[in-house]
Amino acid sequence: MNDKEIRSYEMILRVSDFGAEQAAIFPSASLGGELLARISAAAQELGNHHADQVSGNTSARRGTATKAVARAALRKALQRLHRTARSMSQTMPGIDSKFRIQRNMSDQTLLGTAEAAAVDAAPIKNDFIRFAMPADFLEDLNGHIAEFQTALTTQQTGKGHRVMATAAIDDTLEDALSAVRQLDAIVRNTFHDDPARLAAWSSASHVERAPKRKKVESDLQTQEA
Fold it and tell me: Where along the chain do its domains lie?
């Protein structure tokens, strides 16, 4: 949630608490009771959606960080393979063309290039080993491919969860705020001669304003002058 959404969420929580305290005044069969039930349900949903949003964001960030490491390792393995293939091309003309790698590749292109390299290297594995490649270089390459794929999946899944949670927050907030606006007239009419409860409602249904940012740099410049 952004700052504005958090302030609205906090207001909805306060209104939900107000409704719980005044439940006897607004029976479930009344419009006021129905609106309070909607608001209370929205408060619970928003908490769940926010948790999903934070979880998705954390997962996406973790996937991004892991992907960077896995990408570098995979590219290094491909560069080693290509360098060896260039030497092998002296006696196996054209072999190096199968293991060329581009300078700038998207994640999916890099993954496809690596998978193709693993397939092409398998039949001539022993030739690579003759050029001092490790005996398990193919297993190592496939391991890097798997790690990169996992990191990509983690990143994309996290982003997907974050996007879905954000959309759900928007929809739930819109419905809850509409319910609060409808409830406002009902509460004020119900407690028109009860200043204490009206004050409690005003406090609960008020959305706090964002704090003003202090002009630190301007103040420092003034002090220095």
Answer: 3-224
